[in-house]
Amino acid sequence: MDNLNNPKYKYFDDKFSKQEQSYPGVQNEMTPVPDCGEESYKGSDRLTGRKALVTGGDSGIGRAAAIAYAKEGADVAISYLPDEESDAQEVKEVIEATGRKAVLLPGDLRDESFARQLVHDAAKELGGLDTLVMNAGMQQYINDIKGLKTQQLQDTFTINVFSNVWMLQEALDHLPEGGSVIITTSVQAFSPASLLADYAMTKSAQVSFIVSMAQKLGQKGIRVNGVAPGPVWTALQISGGQPPENIPEFGQNTPLQRAGQPVELSDTYVLLASDSGSYITGQVFGVTGGMPINM
Ligand code: NAD
Ligand code: MG
């Protein structure tokens, strides 16, 4: 039956082959290629006429959100690093095939002026901005805290935390009543691994930002929420996110015993952006294969 699948076996549940790329990685060179809903996600007009910016929308979880939003009727701008142009072009094709507008805005979120201008460029190209998905992120594993370089610490905090603040400040010029802000945090915010110490701190900081901004922006009729993925098969993991020897069994330590695919997060991003989520704000939704997200 198409509507009743054992979640353990619904997507790839075997060992991944060892693979490694340099940061930020491109997913069109991964085996298997992550499922971001190109074929598997079906829309049902839940975001007709909406205008969304998704950072890191070229690949992985951001790509799944961008594709789902377009299939639900939204025009979508994505940002990504210039090295990821080939992934971004694929997303553009999928969005345009739905009949929606796709806007490509490459650049580096470590650059404050780019991060700020990105929001205004997206609003200009889309003719407004009602949904901001801050999903771009950096994760580089460390073997021990002594080996953590200041450059990595700064980059991880700048991309994962500072850019969220900069972009939200600018987005307040555009977000209308009913607008939605969604931040991709992580299970690492709640169960930090020592090999991801710096990354996990940034993900906790995002949770605190989500809750504090929801308090304030609720008064304006703008909702702010987060998604906390568990282990999901994306380029981030094979480009320094995990030690290469952890890749074959990546995700198998979850209760569902496999890694998630980005498309399994699509509905959560759609719900949090859509009118159906009208009473949901200041929350973090776990999509983790069963890993707990309570502290
Ligand atoms: P991904 O590599 O497909 O996407 C991350 C994106 O971040 C990249 O595509 C890139 O465009 C963007 N990015 C990275 N550095 C950037 C920079 N300097 N400037 C601009 N953009 C930059 O991987 P993903 O797993 O889909 O990651 C999306 C989000 O999900 C991240 O915030 C990550 O922390 C979070 N997350 C992922 C997992 C997982 O298991 N994959 C688990 C929990 C949380
Ligand atoms: Mg990418």
From TrEMBL:
Keyword Glycoprotein attached: no
Keywords: Oxidoreductase
Biased composition range(s): Polar residues: 20-30
SUPFAM superfamilies found in the cross-reference section: NAD(P)-binding Rossmann-fold domains
Keyword Nuclease: no
Cross-referenced InterPro entries: NAD(P)-bd_dom_sf (IPR036291), SDR_fam (IPR002347)
Disordered as annotated region, ranges: 20-44
Pfam families the UniProt entry points to: adh_short_C2
Family membership noted in the UniProt record: Belongs to the short-chain dehydrogenases/reductases (SDR) family.
Protein name: SDR family oxidoreductase
Organism: Salinicoccus bachuensis
Lineage, highest ranks first: Bacteria, Bacillati, Bacillota, Bacilli, Bacillales
